[in-house]
Write a structure and sequence with these properties.
Rossmann fold; binds magnesium ion; 198 residues; seven-stranded mixed β-sheet; 5 helices; binds guanosine-5'-triphosphate; alpha/beta; globular; 33% helix
Length: 198
């Protein structure tokens, strides 16, 4: 499954620049370099939509994309800056947290957060904190394990079960790979469910 169309809308460095809530929003969040922007490109089938990089900390703004999903009404995908990257200046890290928190706690159109976790790293303190924080605010979470191609097939499911348990998820996280396309259809279904009836 691919999006029928996807286009960049706008970026914000500051909550004052957030566009007004209009279409239902699905945000992509997770550690820096986990593969958020790559996943947006893979889901939409537009390879240069969101900027990706080998260097962590590529996405420093909140970016909105308008997406026509495989079925149903249009959505906004929101690419969030990554957390947990120690190599950026402290002042910049300090500005990310309020930016991300203000988006995630105050957004009327927000329908769900795709929480990305690198299959090789699993759950660390930041994921525990972040998942609990989202849960407290009643934000629906779709957990994803990224870069599945980096781990042999028989080692993937045990990680998924462990992450499910550690984060107290109702469902197993979806194993995805933008390299070989694994899990993208499952993720699309979860995203469309979270976005609500079309
Ligand atoms: P920030 O914007 O810095 O927070 O990073 P991000 O989470 O948006 O990550 P991004 O999509 O830029 O990807 C980071 C690196 O991981 C890039 O070098 C990607 O090519 C690589 N990558 C992303 N997805 C996959 C995947 O499924 N498999 C493999 N092997 N590499 C991937
Ligand atoms: Mg990015």
């Amino acid at each position: 499954m691919k999006a029928r169309s996807a286009t960049f809308i706008t970026s914000a460095a500051d909550p004052a620049q957030f566009p007004p809530s209009s279409l239902p929003e699905i945000a992509f969040a997770g550690r820096s370099n986990v593969g958020k922007s790559s996943l947006i490109n893979a889901l939409t089938g537009v390879s240069s939509l969101a900027r990706t990089s080998r260097t962590p900390g590529r996405t420093r703004l909140v970016n909105w994309f308008r997406v026509d999903p495989p079925k149903g009404d249009p959505l906004h995908f929101v690419d969030l800056p990554g957390y947990g990257y120690a190599q950026v200046p402290v002042a910049m890290r300090d500005s990310w947290r309020p930016l991300i928190e203000s988006f995630l706690s105050g957004r009327e159109a927000l329908r769900g957060v795709v929480l990305l976790i690198d299959v090789r790293r699993g759950v660390e303190d930041e994921e525990l904190d972040f998942a609990a924080w989202l849960e407290q605010r009643g934000v629906a979470v779709v957990a994803c394990l990224t870069k599945a191609d980096k781990v042999p097939k028989n080692k993937r499911r045990p990680v998924a079960l462990d992450v499910k348990k550690q984060l107290g998820l109702r469902k197993e996280p979806i194993l995805v790979s933008t390299l070989d396309g694994d899990g993208l259809d499952d993720l699309w279904r979860a995203v469309m469910t979270a976005a609500g009836p079309a």
